[in-house]
Structures are given as structure tokens and as C-alpha cells.
Amino acid sequence: MDDHQLAEDLRLAVGELVRAVRPADTMPPGEAAVLGYLDRNGPLTTADIAQQRGVSHQSVAKAVKELLGQGLVRAEAHPSDGRKLLLHLTPTGSGRLAEERRRREDWLGAAIHDVLGADERKALATAVPLLARLTAHLKARQGLPDPARPVPHFTQD
């Protein structure tokens, strides 16, 4: 298999995997993404989040408005630029994000347990850091920051 075919197969498989896990979510993806960025990176502006996500400022602003209304984030004046707001994850937002992550982990973890044998789980665990390296490389090419959270190391029992 050549690199172009591998790239296309990977893109399709990862996209389908992401879509297959979405039914576990109870939050809109944009809102969950904002909470995730604040959790991993600390306080950020709406523009910072939009730039890191590679989406429009308006789409992030819409999600932020919803999150502020739910008390999941709070805003304060930026310390060096009073025209900007710095967004913070609230304890309620942190709890909600943890619930979302747990739900996704349970959903995907159950599928891994049901479908993959021990050797396949080991192969999948080996692939995760490779996927993270590819992601970091692609983000670097776009001028986006590297993910703040290190790649987890999986062990097999």
C-alpha cells in the first residue's frame, strides 16, 4: 500500500470512528472542544481558541456564549489588554467535561473490549502515539501549537 492510499484509509477510518463515538456525547462538539482547550491550556481568549481549533471566531464566540450562560466558563478582563476577555473553566465546567470524557471513554472502551483481542489491543496501543505524532506534525505545519496534554501510554494487563 502506498502512502497516499494509507493516508486516505486512515482519514476515512478516523473520521468514521469519531462519528461513531458522537452518540455518547451530551454536549455540542464546539462547546466540548472549548472546555477541552481551557482544561488543557488554562485561560484563553476566544480568538486563541478559534486559532487553535482552526475555526472562525464567530463559531467559538457562539459556543462561549452558551457555556457562560450555563456557568461552565467565566470571563474576566485580560490582564494586558482590557479589550479582550480571558476565559476560565469553572469547577462546574470541569465536572461536566470529565463526565463527557468518561462517557466517551466508556463507549469506546466497551467497543475495544468487545471487538479486539489482546494482540489487537496491543497493536492499537502502539498506534496511538503514532497518531499523536502525525497530529503534532500537521499542527506544526499549520503554525498551530502542539497539544498540551502528553500522549497517554497504555499498558496491557
Describe the secondary-structure layout.
Elements: H1 3-21, H2 29-41, H3 46-53, H4 57-69, E1 73-77, E2 85-89, H5 91-115, H6 118-141
Antiparallel strand pairs: 1-2
Helix pairs in contact: 2-5, 3-4
Structural description of this entry:
Helices cover 65% and strands 6% of the residues. It contains six helices and two strands; from the N terminus they run ααααββαα. Strands 1-2 form a two-stranded antiparallel sheet. The longest helix has 25 residues. The protein is globular and about 55 Å long. The two termini are 32 Å apart.
Structural class computed from helices and strand pairing = mainly alpha
- Provide the spatial order of strands within the biggest beta sheet: 1-2
Please compute the radius of gyration using only Cα atoms.
18 Å
Q: Which band does the percent of strand residues land in?
A: 5-15%
Profile the largest sheet.
2 strands, antiparallel
Total helices: the number is: 6
Q: How confident is the prediction overall: mean pLDDT? A: 89
How many β-strand stretches?
Answer: 2
Question: In one word, what is the shape?
Answer: globular
Return residue spans where pLDDT drops below 50 for at least 5 consecutive residues: 147-157
Q: How far is the N terminus from the C terminus?
A: 32 Å
